[in-house]
Amino acid sequence: MQDITDIEMEARRKRARRTALIAGGFAVAVFLLSIVQMLKV
Amino acid sequence: MAHAATHDHHDHHGAPKGFFQRWVMSTNHKDIGTLYLIFSLTMFFIGGAFAMVIRAELFKPGMQLVQPYFFNEMTTMHALVMIFGAIMPSFVGLANWMIPLMVGAPDMALPRMNNLSFWIMPFAFILLLSTLFMPGGGPAGGWTMYPPLSLQGESIAYTIFAVHLMGISSIMGAINIIATILNMRAPGMDLLKMPVFVWSWLITAFLLIAVMPVLAGAVTMLLTDKYFHTNFFNAAGGGDPVLFQHIFWFFGHPEVYIMILPAFGIISEIIPTFARKPIFGYRAMVFAIASIAFLSFIVWAHHMFAVGLPMGAEIFFMYATMLIAVPTGVKVFNWVSTMWGGSMTFETPMLFSIAFVILFTIGGFSGLMLALAPADFQYHDTYFVVAHFHYVLVTGAAFSIMAAAYYWIPKWSGNMYSETWGKIHFWSSVISVNVLFFPQHFLGLAGMPRRIPDYNVAFANFNMISSIGGFWFGASQLIFLGVVIHCVFFSKKKAADRSWEGAKGLEWTVPSPAPFHTFDVPPVIHDDELAHGNTEH
User: Fold this and answer.
1) What is the pLDDT of residues B372-420, one digit of tens each?
2) InterPro entries recorded for this chain (chain B) (predicted)?
3) How many alpha carbons fall within 13 Å on the CB side of residue B363?
């Protein structure tokens, strides 16, 4: 049985939150860029 | 997988007792998956009702039942509801239910965000559908929302806000799927041992976070043009309406693949099960999905050949589009090669999958015809386009969802569906869908434009045949509803844990119905028992 300890599971969840933040930040950046690049300023 | 860890005892005390706590406050991937599937089925019937109005009006030439503006509202709403309300949420529902089970994870990585992703959707669609009852009516400029046409209605602000909400929901769902697949897999479940369905969703999720914000940006600029006097797309103010088309289709073409890549994953699970052979060319299948996803970013202007692109651009987008046939062909040949020499049986999921391979390929070929820039000047905005994308999205995406429902419903409900009624549903659907959409190729080639409530009498016969097929196909889906309700609530035939003889993969090692909590202790992975785990051979 390849057991995962609670500590390891918590570390995984932490990594998952970091992944989500990176992905979410990327999405927000794409949204802003799609508008900003259209501005003639 | 001798010791797939499941906590059966949780089945009895894991789920909250109250309706509100269980369903509204749910953070359980299976319950949220169920909510998504129920929601998408509801939207499928609402969008289908709009389609029935369209086909009833087109049954005969001349104005029959509805006013032209209402007809345009129906074509617009049918598309928005089917794309954002039916197809996409049903794939997210399948992802919620199956990805944690397939990779040996106890739940999605971010369960509370999962709840929020779902519960945004009903409000988005109530908002969108409510525009039909507003003074001036709902959006009627087509789902593409091209300005200046789309800016003429007053309900555009509500439509745009609804699109924003759908986009936020989709992006949060995609983030959750990426975080789950990258971080929550059981030890030993390497990336290249994951089921193709999981791979297809990982790639789809990347597409979603890359292009949904572009749609959000485009509609935000529409909103500011309408209400804040900006001129992004207003030619009179120095803007460019064609710019909107570029931005929209930079989102829109990957969106098409968002609606078909998970279908590829589903079919790649079902065909090996009923052919009793591992998928042919597992790695090629994964790389083909990734290739299609990459190419989807560089083909958007094939939707706009007729706006007057420079010759070099037309040639580039034509050839780039035709390139997509290569990885798609790899997939089709691999599905056929998986079946070749297999010990095949033809249960309902397999019938839908075989129909998918044949009919999706027809849609693919008409897509290749549309990719030819010189020919597209003839086909553009005709019923040929309507026939093409309905072959891809109905006999492609929708058929794969039905195949998935029949395939996994024993795992979801613990009961077997009626195979007889499943097959009746299949044959009725597969015949009627061709009666519905095949004549539309001829209508388009003869020059019938899309999105019109009236037409030349020369098109009368094919339209009548198409409408008969439409009513027949719509009625056939009531059989599907009946089969699902019977299976979940009334079926006496209990499903085995491994519901299909040839089924492999972690999801079939847990009891049927799947307990409320699964894989609290990660399963032991044995390569030979994974659907596609033994990829070295």
Assistant:
1) 999 999 999 999 999 999 999 999 999 999 999 999 999 999 999 999 9
2) Cyt_c_oxase-like_su1_dom, Cyt_c_oxase-like_su1_sf, Cyt_C_Oxase_1, Cyt_c_Oxase_su1_BS, Cyt_c_oxase_su1_dom, Cyt_c_oxidase_su1_bac
3) 25
Q: Show the 3-state SS of B237-259.
A: HCCCHHHHHHHHHHHHHHHHHHC
Q: According to the 3-state scheme, what is the secondary structure of B515-537?
A: CCCECCCCCCCCHHHCCCCCCCC
C-alpha B160/C-alpha B147 separation (Å) is 13
Residue that wins the pLDDT comparison between B302 and A10: B302
Contacts of A17 in chain B (CB under 8 A): 109-110, 179
For residue B56 the two structure tokens come to: 């009833």
Q: Sort out which chain B residues have CB atoms less than 8 A from A33's CB and list them.
A: 217
Kindly state the tokens that stand for B67.
């006013």
Whether B30 and B515 have beta carbons less than 8 Å apart is answered as no
C-alpha to C-alpha distance for B524 and A10, rounded to whole angstroms:
20
Q: How far is B174 from chain A (nearest CA, A)?
A: 9
Q: What is the mean pLDDT of chain B?
A: 94
| Catalytic site positions of B | 78, 107, 143, 169-170, 253, 255, 257, 268, 302-303, 328, 331, 450
Q: Distance between CA atoms of A17 and A41, rounded to whole angstroms?
A: 36
Q: What is the pTM of this model?
A: 0.94
Contact B171 A34 (CB under 8 A): no
**Superfamily in which the B10-529 domain is placed by CATH:** Cytochrome c oxidase-like, subunit I domain (1.20.210.10)
Residue of A nearest to B176 (CA): A20
Q: What integer pLDDT is reported at residue B526 of this predicted model?
A: 80
| Structure ipTM | 0.90
* B309-363 pLDDT per residue, tens: 999 999 999 999 999 999 999 999 999 999 999 999 999 999 999 999 999 999 9
Q: How far apart are the first and last CA of chain A?
A: 61
Contacts with B402 (C-beta within 8 Å, 6 or more apart), sequence order: B352, B425, B429, B480
- The dihedral sign for the CA sequence B262, B268, B271, B276: negative
